[in-house]
Amino acid sequence: MTNSTLGLALVAGLLGLVRYRRLGPALRGVAQLAIFDALMELIFSTLANVIRVHNLFMAPVVLVGEVVLVALAYRRALQSAAFSRALPWVLGLFSAYALAESLLRLSATRHLVSLEIIGNLLQISLAGLYFQKLLNELRVEHLRADPFFWLSAALAVYGLGNLFISLSSNYLLTHCSSQLQAIVFWGVRNVFNILLYAAYCLALGRRPPPAQPLGA
User: Fold this and answer.
1) What pLDDT does residue 208 have?
2) Would you say residue 92 lies in a domain?
3) Has residue 11 been placed in a domain?
4) Using an 8 Å Cβ cutoff, are 69 and 40 in contact?
5) Is residue 134 domain-resident?
6) Which of 80-89, 120-129, 182-191 has the lowest mean pLDDT?
7) What is the domain range of residue 198?
8) Which neighbouring-strand residues pair with 140?
9) pLDDT for 149 beyond 80
């Protein structure tokens, strides 16, 4: 499962590199996100399998990087003045919180849970805002051809799934066996990662549909 996750992340990152110049501004943001995640997966794999060092210390970097990059991509896709004004404050507060947690050296479990919950809620909110935009404007006639529709669907599932894991992590760590913890924290999480990376590939490999009113 881990090899599949790494392989798909690398495919998405390579696709983002190859198609970058042909993409619009919003999809270039997705390409940057795919490249970032591919690099992080490669570093995680190297630390775990080659150097054999625990990679949990990199979690805040990955969380902040993913949230910032996906938010910037959605800023271009949403084209909302209110969202653009609020985004620097939201990202600034989230980054400051992540930095404060790191400097205070809180326990790894609490650190991951708090950051992941906030990050997951932000991801779910971004997907919800795009769905709201589609419903309000009714300009995309064929949703299956809309790259951000697929990305938002995957991001919503990814965020909700990881949010559930984060909320139940303390119970799992306290009351469940190490085998079950490994299945949930690594196996189930990898399923959500694969879904998200597949959405990157789908979004980066499609052309955005023409924006036309449904009645036209």
Assistant:
1) 55
2) yes
3) yes
4) no
5) yes
6) 182-191
7) 2-205
8) 211
9) yes
In a domain, 101, yes or no: yes
When pLDDT is cut at 50, 70 and 90, the band that residue 214 belongs to is: very low
Beta bridge mates, 211: 140
Q: CB-based contacts of 161: which residues, under 8 Å, 6+ apart?
A: 188, 191, 192
- What gap in Å lies between CA 11 and CA 17, rounded to an integer? 10
Average pLDDT score over the chain: 85
Q: How many domains does the chain have?
A: 1
The residue assigned the tokens 């066996």 is 177
Scored b (16 or more CB within 10 A) or e, 44-81 reads bbebeeeeeeeeeeebbebbbbbbbbbbbbbbbbbeee
Q: What is the pLDDT of residue 105?
A: 61
pLDDT at 212: 47
